[in-house]
Amino acid sequence: MAARKPSKPARKPARATKKPKAAAARKPAAPAKRTRSTAHVPTPGLYGWITHTELATRDPMATKAWAAKVFGWSFRPPVPSPAGDYHLFAYSDQGGGGVRGLGSDEVPHSTPTVHVRDCKQAYAKAVAAGAQPIMAPNEIMPGVVIATVREPGGMLIGLSGGT
Amino acid sequence: MASTKKTATKTATKTSKKTAKPTATLTRKANPGFVSHTELASTDPQATRKWCQSVLGWSFGDAVPTPTGPYHMWRHEAPLSGGGIRNTNPKEPAGTTPFVEVADVKKAHTAAIKAGATEMYPPMAVGEGMGWISCVRAPGGPSIGFWSP
Q: Which among B41, B102, B126 is the nearest to A4, CB-wise?
């Protein structure tokens, strides 16, 4: 990592009552089943922000325990999915991520998910701009639509929006 | 990947010490646990940068020159979020590394290793007064970076 620009301290969440982005379960290979009936209200003003970081690991429980100890990340109860439990964490009301196991053809990696206004539109634009479709927009819970692409430089990028 | 990334980051850091011109001195404190920087290792940084600008609306400043190529940075404020795009190293696949803020990189790095992580590169200063970084491979395999003022 090269030199970093200085920045102002993060401000307090504008609307603390909103559900954190980290509450949205994501898994490109096999999206988690809906386990909640409550609607998610996307946080406005964060379009373009990476609000969710997914860690795909050989040993989710070991990664989870390590991250909780080293970073102090707080984890929610695991969300069951066909591919195994999805362990959501949050480090603020506006940022977090998830820890999951590997798919059959995967190696350990991370995937940043960018918050967008409209996931379907962003997905279409992403593919038109040269990305490879990986997972088409999928509503994983009311108010949370996610998708995944491989951008032209080879990295997996997630998209998350209200529609 | 660990060794190549270690080399690349070290060289990038050395270069940035000589050529980067920070616009201000770092004054803020760390937000422990926050992922505020995501590094993107791309097989085609220019294509990645163009795509991110077009699709994600990210704004980039002048790239920081390094021996392995330009480092393209973007940043959002409040809450802090950003990162950098660099070339992949030889035999390194495209991928991303989240950098987590900690109060003290040296202490966190030591604690991380003790808790089961594998070192990718040790704590080092970046830029001029831009803080400290290090990187490890967490139990289970994903790479994770640390940053502190």
A: B126
Q: Does B115 touch chain A (CB under 8 A)?
A: yes
pLDDT digits (tens, 9 = 90+) for A115-138: 999 999 999 999 999 999 999 999
Alpha helix segments (H runs only) across chain B: 2-19, 45-51, 105-114
How many CB atoms are closer than 10 A to CB B48? Answer: 24
pLDDT in tens, A64-90: 999 999 999 999 999 998 889 999 999
Q: ipTM of this model? A: 0.82
Return d(Cα B68, Cα A29) in angstroms, integer. Answer: 33
| Strands laid side by side in the B143-148 sheet | B72-76, B81-87, B35-42, B95-101, B143-148, B132-137, B118-125
pTM: 0.80
- Mutation for testing the B interface, residue in A1, A74, A117, A123 having most B CBs under 10 Å: A1
Distance (Å) from the C-alpha of residue B32 to the closest C-alpha of chain A? 7
CA B140 to centroid of chain Cα atoms: 21
